[in-house]
Design brief:
The complex is a heterodimer of chains A (156) and B (287).
Chain A: H1 5-136, H2 142-155
Helix pairs in contact in A: 1-2
Chain B: H1 2-6, H2 13-21, E1 25-28, E2 34-36, H3 40-46, E3 50-52, H4 53-76, H5 84-103, H6 111-127, H7 135-146, H8 163-196, H9 204-243, H10 248-282
Antiparallel strand pairs in B: 1-2, 1-3
Classes of the chains: A mainly alpha (156), B mainly alpha (287).
């Protein structure tokens, strides 16, 4: 085992490499790993925040949903009420309309009856006059007879 | 077996293994001029003033390639979803960072880069052991013969099988242990730790007898453990290649599979012990 200058040479190489490593190699990787560690931490934090946000949003949504449901229920209620109201009104109107039609029909019937009575009276009086002329076979004063006859007719 | 031994490129087993365990050495010859050692004997004569061009070259090349690659990936990396390569590098980074987090209880932003450099560098240097022993070495020997005019040029490609490489690192770490011990506890605190622990001041010589060897055992065990594991693995590969003939193929495979465990394990152990030692260097015993 003979030692020689190689020992010194290796020693020098050792210190030079050590210096190079601590100055030019180690910091590169140390920085990159630190940076990545920070990135991952940030990412995890962001994920946690996102989850919390999601929870809040879901709570909000369910609340809003409840509100909307209540509103919908009141709207349906009102609509139902309004519908029955409309039906009732329609019923009333129909009833009134019917009565009006009945009343109109009644009036018309009465009118028709009066007209028929009038016509009947005229015909009866004509028949009566014709009958009387035949009985008397004489011409009576047309004017006084006419007066008497119309008096008779109005008594019929 | 003798026949098989003769068949390795006309070398005996001993020559073959010797060739593979020698280094491509550049240094000062006994006559004073600097140059390549042509034989192991010449290399041995250079003594301390020699440089293993092959192992140190691979070591520096691998370390530089790893750091530049990591820097390249880090430059292009984003904090968004990482792609394949970035993911791969980030995994290594996080693995090392987690080990530092577990083993090191003080604030020192230099320990992470230190652990990362050690782990990946040693891992890659160990991995060179899985490259078949004659591929690159054989090519280099050929190139040495025909291009540079060097007979039987050795060329080791696994830096961690060179005790200079492993001890070079463990001694650097020892220097860091001393530096941080004194920086965190002061020179007095550091010395009193050696002198007054574990048995209090009345047992001072005995304490020194325990603590000083313990201190020096740290870099020695750290460097020799890594060297020993990889050297033994390399040696077994060489024995297979020189002794077993065709049977070396399954043997290589089996040993390489086993080595797949040793390679990362030794890199991991080296890194963990560095972290633990430096943590102990920051630790104060005065309660």
């Amino acid at each position: 085992m003979d030692f020689n200058l190689t020992l010194i040479g290796q020693s020098m190489a050792f210190f030079v490499f050590w210096w190079f490593c601590q100055a030019k190699v180690w910091p590169l990787f140390a920085n990159i790993l630190d940076e990545r560690k920070k990135k991952i931490a940030d990412g995890l934090e962001a994920a946690a925040r996102g989850e919390k946000d999601l929870e809040l949003a879901q709570a909000k949504v369910s609340e809003q949903l409840k509100e909307v449901k209540a509103q919908a229920a009141t709207i349906v209620d009102q609509a139902n009420k309004r519908a029955t109201q409309i039906v009732d009104e329609a019923k009333d109107q129909a009833r009134e309309e019917g009565q009006r039609i009945i009343a109109g029909a009644n009036a018309e019937i009465e009118q028709e009856m009066n007209r028929a009575k009038e016509a009947l009276r005229e015909q009866v009086s004509a028949i009566a006059i014709a009958g009387a002329e035949k009985i008397l076979e004489s011409t009576v004063d047309q004017a006084s007879n006419e007066e008497m006859l119309s008096k008779l007719a109005s008594e019929l | 077996m003798a026949e098989a031994a003769q068949s390795v490129e006309g070398q005996t087993v001993q020559e073959y293994i010797q060739h593979h365990l020698s280094f491509l050495t550049y240094g000062r010859h006994p006559d004073g001029h600097w140059g390549i050692a042509h034989t192991p004997e010449e290399a041995a004569e250079m003594g301390f003033w020699a440089l293993h061009v092959d192992t140190l070259g691979w070591s520096v090349f691998i370390g530089a390639a790893f750091l530049l690659f990591f820097r390249y990936v880090g430059k292009k990396a984003t904090a968004d979803t990482p792609g394949g390569i970035q993911n791969f590098v980030e995994n290594i980074f996080e693995f090392v960072d987690a080990r530092v987090g577990e083993g090191f209880n003080y604030t020192n932003r230099l320990i992470g880069p230190l652990a990362l450099t050690i782990f990946v560098w040693v891992l890659l240097m160990n991995t060179m052991d899985l490259v078949p022993v004659d591929w690159i070495t054989g090519l280099a020997t050929l190139a040495g013969e025909h291009v540079f005019g060097l007979e039987h040029m050795s060329f080791k490609i696994v830096p961690t099988t060179d005790v200079n490489i492993t001890m070079g690192m463990s001694i650097s770490i020892f220097a860091l242990i001393l530096y941080y011990s004194i920086k965190m506890k002061g020179i007095g605190g550091f010395l009193s730790e050696l002198a007054f622990h574990p048995f209090g001041k009345w047992m001072l010589p005995f304490n020194l007898l325990i603590e000083v060897p313990t201190l020096f055992a740290k870099p020695v065990s750290l460097g020799l453990r890594l060297f020993g594991n990889l050297y033994a693995g390399e040696l077994l590969f060489l024995l297979f290649a020189s002794l077993l003939g065709l049977w070396q193929l399954p043997a290589h495979f089996a040993w390489a599979v086993f080595h797949l465990i040793i390679v990362p394990l030794q890199a991991f152990v080296f890194m963990m012990l560095t972290i633990v030692y430096l943590n102990a260097a920051h630790e104060s015993h005065d309660h």
